[in-house]
Structure formats: C-alpha cells, structure tokens
Amino acid sequence: MSQLIIPAMGSNSQAEVIEVLIAQGDSLEVEQSTLVLESEKATIEVPANVAGVVTKLLVKVGDKFKGGEVYAEIEQPLGGLTEPTAKPLPEPSGKSAVIEPPAPVSTTPTQVKQQDAAPVPAANPALAAAAEEVYAGPAVRRMARELGVDLAQLTGSGLKNRIQKEDVQQFVKQRLQNMEQVAGIPRVATIDFSQYGPIKEQPLNNIKRATAKAMTLAHLNVPQVTQFDEADITELEAFRVQQNTLAAKQNIKYSIVPFVLKVLARCLRDYPNFNASLNAQADALIIKDYVHLGVAVDTPKGLLVPVLRDVDKLSVGQIQQQLQDKAERARAGQLTLEEMQGANMSLSSLGGIGGTAFTPIVNPPEVAILGLSKATIKPVWQEDQFVPRLMLPLSLSYDHRVIDGAEAARFSQALVKYLQDLRHLLM
Ligand code: CAO
C-alpha cells in the first residue's frame, strides 16, 4: 500500500482544499491532478505522487493540510491493471486558479503499467465517466477561469482526453459562432483581397468604430421606414437672407439648419410620440417633457452628434450660435461625452453637400431622425401656372414599432407647414 501525500509547501503554512478531483475506487496515474489547494499566496493543483487505485480518501473540501500530510491510500496492483470502478463526476473545476505544482512526493516506485496509450472504450461506462473528468494542466485551468469557461463541458484533445489550451480556445470560438447563428447573422466571408491586387489595411479610428457599432445595433434592432417630403422654403430663404444681411455686422450667419431645428422642436411638442423612447421591455413609451436635439456633424475623424438642449425654448439665433460652437468643437475634437448624450431626436443635414434624398438611420433609443438634402428651385404648379419655388427635401426615418406610417406622414406634413410659413409657429 502507498499513500498520496501533500507536497512540501515551503513554509509550515496550511492550505485549504477547495476541490477534490478524485474519489475512492479511482485508478490514478502519476502526475494526475487530485486536489486543488488554496493557500494565502496561491492556488495549487496537487498531482498524484504514485499510481494505483484509491482505496481510502482522507480528504474533503474545506480540510486544511500541511506539506507531508497523507490525504489518500493507494493500492498498487502487482502484475497488471486494476479495473477502475465508476465514480460520480467531480464538481466542475474551472473556477480554480492554479500555479505549477511542486514536484510530486514519491513514497514507492511506480510499478503500475501506465494506461496512457490505451484508447478509452466508449462502451465502458466507468472509463467513459473517467474520461469526462476535468483533466487539465494549471495554465489551461487559469485560461479557462479568465475566460469564464467551465472545463467540465469540454472534451480534451490531449492524451487521455487531457484538455489543452487549444480546446479552450476552440470552445470559446464555437460558442461565439453559435451566438451569431442564434441571432441569425451569418458572418461575411473573409477574403484575402491581395489576391486581386495591391492593398493597404487602414485601422478604423475610435469614432468610426463607435459609429459602426451604433449603426449595426440600430439596424438590427429598429424596424425603420423613411418618409420623404418637400417643403417650399422660398419665403423662409428670403427671410434668412434678410436676417443675414441685418446680422452681418454682428458676424452672425444663419444657415437653414437652425430654422429647421426650431420647427422640429415644435413638431416634437405637437407629436409627443416622436419625443419618446421605448422602455427596456419595449412595452411602454417614455414620453419626455423636454426637447433635446442631436445634430450630426461631419468631422475629419468621422461622424459626431452633439446635442442641443431645450431647443423649443431657444431662439433661432441662439440655436445658430450653439450649433456653430458645437460643430466647431466637434471638428476640433473638444466635445465632452455629456454633450453628445440625451437627444430625443436627431437631424442630419447633407444639404450643404448635395443629393435629393437619403435614408438616415434612427439612432436608438431615439425613435426618429430627420434628414435634409439640398434645396433646389423647382417648377411648382400654382393656380394655373408653374412658378419657380425653392424646395427643401425632407427624409424622415422612424421606428415603426413606435410610430405608424400615417403618424409619420402627419409629422412630416407639419414640418412642411411650419417651414413654408413660420407664422404658424406663433399659433
Ligand atoms: N440646401 C441648400 N443649401 C444648403 C442646405 C440645404 N439643405 N444646407 C446647407 N446649405 C448651404 C448653407 O447655407 C451653406 O451655404 P453658404 O456657405 O452659401 O452660406 C453651405 O450649404 C454649407 O453649409 P454647412 O453644411 O457647412 O452648414 P450648415 O449650418 O447647413 O450645417 C452641419 C451644419 C453641422 C449640419 C453641417 O456642417 C454638417 O456637418 N453636415 C453633415 C452631416 C452629416 O454628415 N450627416 C450624415 C450623417 S449620417 O445620416
């Protein structure tokens, strides 16, 4: 008879048993993990110092041991293998952190023929159970713990199903792929473009990465529709030009955007469903009693959306000033995170660049976004003739879970009404 002995642990300190990896009747090999001990300094995986069958287990979780103490008795069969008996599976041991164990303490030379090379016959329940035991080295256990992997769920590819690092990596990879499949999003194929011609890889900056993430999230979560419309802003444009002439001495220059923001704020008051967000369960609307608006700003590093607060309470002049200030600071990379949070709805103006219409993406938890394209003079039928009018294209994207098509059309028409005749804002 031999004994399993706790290896020397340096000082005379005790270590607590946090995992028992063997049971009475188990057939052990030298170096096989038997216990996990936790001392003040580290967690240690204790390997078997002799091979044989466990005849008496003298340890349980919570026991404290010093180096040199016996924790099991072992029968070393002469002349061949002892058939191992079935035992309950050990508790999953992925939680234990481990360090390389000290050299095993040997009491008797090993006479047992190793089973390493023998394949585990699946038909033998005892051996199959043994094969399902967590059998992994310290580095693998540490890796599993860091990644939150339960090693009991893995089948090792190493000798006697020993779990290797690659098994843990493969397991995590598989899980991630499964998650994607569950979400129904197959991955786009990875292509080596260099096979077609010269290429250069340019990493995305943080702003572009954040935009990519937010837009993907929006696209996957929000069923969106875009309502297109046109507002006759001939009168508004004449007013804007006049105001710019008057304000030139104060160095103020109005663009169309602050007027549209003022009108948009009024529409959000008129149509509270647009001034709202879905709650976390998507079964109620949180209607807001403030009107904060995001404005998309094109910056050299990518798209930023500063937020103008209480726009319904601001004059067009104040809106223009705040917009100019935030756009400049966005382009200089000086916006704070707080300045980009809290919008109820956003405006994206591409009118300074061109285009006739586009489909802006709703940025949840907002439920709508208004896109502006370039205003152009068009022939409009009035009375009995075509007259040249300056028409501003509007593209209103909305979350169809919250807003019905008819409501969106009414909202869009309200925008048109106010933009065509600012006097309606007084009513
Ligand atoms: N129709 C015709 N002309 C327009 C116009 C419109 N809808 N909108 C702006 N313009 C004119 C302006 O009057 C200005 O003309 P002048 O120089 O002759 O005065 C010129 O185009 C440039 O305007 P601007 O775009 O620089 O300034 P703005 O106040 O109109 O807009 C801002 C400010 C911050 C919205 C804009 O600069 C910007 O960054 N837009 C891009 C937004 C973006 O990237 N959106 C895409 C996001 S994804 O949906």
Please give a handful of descriptors for the protein shown.
427 residues, alpha+beta, 7-stranded mixed sheet, 4-stranded antiparallel sheet, 8 helices, 22% strand
Please tell me about this protein's structure.
The chain is α+β, with helices and mostly antiparallel strands and 427 residues long. It has helices at residues 125-131, 138-147, 165-182, 206-221, 234-247, 256-270, 316-331, 405-420, and strands at residues 2-5, 15-20, 27-28, 33-38, 43-47, 52-57, 64-65, 70-75, 224-232, 276-278, 285-287, 293-295, 297-299, 302-304, 307-308, 345-349, 368-372, 376-382, 385-399. The strands form 5 sheets. Strands 9, 12, 15, 16, 17, 18 and 19 form a 7-stranded mixed beta sheet that branches. Strands 1-8-6-3 form a 4-stranded antiparallel beta sheet, with no helix packed on it. A 4-stranded antiparallel beta sheet has the order 5-4-2-7, with no helix packed on it. Helix 6 packs across helix 7 (316-331). It is elongated and about 115 Å long. The model is unreliable at 80-132 (pLDDT under 50).
Give a concise summary.
The protein is of the alpha+beta class and 427 residues long. 26% of the residues lie in helices and 22% in strands. The protein has 8 helices and 19 strands.
Structural class, by secondary structure, is alpha+beta
Provide the gyration radius in Å. 36 Å
Which ions, cofactors or small ligands are bound in this entry? oxidized coenzyme A
Cα end-to-end separation:
100 Å
Largest sheet: 7 strands, mixed
What's the order of the H and E elements? EEEEEEEEHHHHEHHEEEEEEHEEEEH
Q: What is the mean predicted local confidence, pLDDT? A: 85
Envelope shape: elongated
Write down how many β-strands occur, each being a DSSP E stretch of 2 or more residues.
19
Poorly predicted segments: 80-132
Q: Work out the helix count.
A: 8
Helix content: 25-40%
Strand composition percent? 15-25%
